[in-house]
Amino acid sequence: MRSEEHAGWERDFPVRYLLVRDDISGEEEGVLWGRCAEVEGLFMDAPPLPREVLTLRGCPRESLLVKAVADSAEPVRLLGDGTLSIEPVDLSNDGPTRFWDLEDTAVLAQWPTPGDPGRVDIVVGTGVKEDNYWGTERLPSNPQFDLWFPSIRGDSPSGGCRSIDGLFTPRPQRPTQPVHLIGCEPAAPLLTLLSRPLPQRGAPITLWPLDRHGRTMTRYRLDLHTVEARPSVLGGALIDVTLTDPADDRPTLAARAVWEIWSDGVPTLPNQWAQFDTQGQSAWLDLTRVGPYAPEGLSGGTYHLDGQHITDRTSMLLALGEALLGPGSNYGRCLDSVADSLCGGPSVIPPFTLVWHRADIARHALAGHVLHHLGGRSYFEVTVDLLRKRGVTVVLQ
């Protein structure tokens, strides 16, 4: 479904959002559920998760996790955000792999696993967000526990363990905050849902924010668990719809100002992202996923990277994408996807020359961003090495 086909209506205010039921299989186009003038309550900074203590039992000593927190000359204590996966051996009986988020994880203690010197027990303090799993809550038979911490490993597991004490316990849920769809013109599927007695239980839909050209800026899931409707404050035949439990994966408050810039269209001026803090720059990077892109397999030429605003990983990726593909563009959201872009697709591919201006700023700012699984080198050093190994002539100035 093309958003531009539904972006116009004969009213004094524009359509800024579409409600779409996406086909999760990707085989069919989305189905329009409604059009809205505005959405209130969408932007929200999630409160921190309650702190909990978990014990990771039997972590293999050869894993990157144990090497970083126990067998390093400078043990890592702050692991940061991570992901836990619980994969059953028998998918037919125990269901799919389950994923849990671990927030702001810190190592509290570690010691050799009793009776097994080849393994280590690690105690961590963390915030735990359970996966949205509709099956049984019991632990799968012969589960495999894998842990990802980007601070010590990128897109591959940092390590695993045999069991986790304290994981399967009741925990308080974050309070929900409603989302209000203002000036909504519902299509037939949404009208059908609203005609049911409260509380309604609908499958999730996707919110498509539009820029002034009708282009979809990004997409966000909304759960239609409980829906209330009333005549709109904007008048006419429109309605206002309140989603009282719409899910907590929402753009942050910092993203609001970023979306305002992008609502005028894909940015055309360089370094507009530099005015924002880390959260705002992360929101900017999210919006670059939609494009624009370079011609397929474009190679050759010289490109100039403005390094004056590179202070962390996100700003480095923004500056790299802007240098190679122009403002509002994306050349990767992590080093693995940068490597993918260097291999082909709608991007600039080697051989080409990249002149990195003010490289000293990035070198200094990223000196503390050490990738332990890549020899303890900094994120800056690893990035430059990746570009050069893939055939890019990198000139540091």
Describe it for me?
The protein has 9 helices and 21 strands. With 397 residues, it is of the alpha+beta class. It has a 7-stranded antiparallel sheet, covered by helices on one side. A 7-stranded antiparallel sheet has the order 8-7-4-5-6-3-9. It has a 3-stranded parallel sheet with strand order 16-18-21. Strand 5 (98-113) and strand 6 form a beta hairpin.
What's the arrangement of secondary structure elements?
Layout: E1 17-21, E2 31-40, E3 51-60, H1 64-69, E4 78-87, H2 91-94, E5 98-113, E6 116-129, E7 144-148, E8 159-161, E9 163-165, E10 179-186, H3 188-194, E11 205-209, E12 220-222, E13 227-231, E14 239-243, H4 255-262, H5 278-287, E15 298-299, E16 302-306, H6 313-325, H7 335-343, E17 348-349, E18 352-357, H8 359-365, E19 370-371, E20 377-378, H9 379-389, E21 392-396
Parallel strand pairs: 15-17, 16-18, 18-21
Antiparallel strand pairs: 1-2, 1-11, 2-10, 3-6, 3-9, 4-5, 4-7, 5-6, 7-8, 10-14, 11-12, 13-14, 19-20
Helix pairs in contact: 4-5, 5-6
Summarize the structure.
The chain has 9 helices and 21 strands.
Keywords:
397 residues; Barnase, Chain D; seven-stranded antiparallel beta sheet; 9 helices; 21 strands; globular
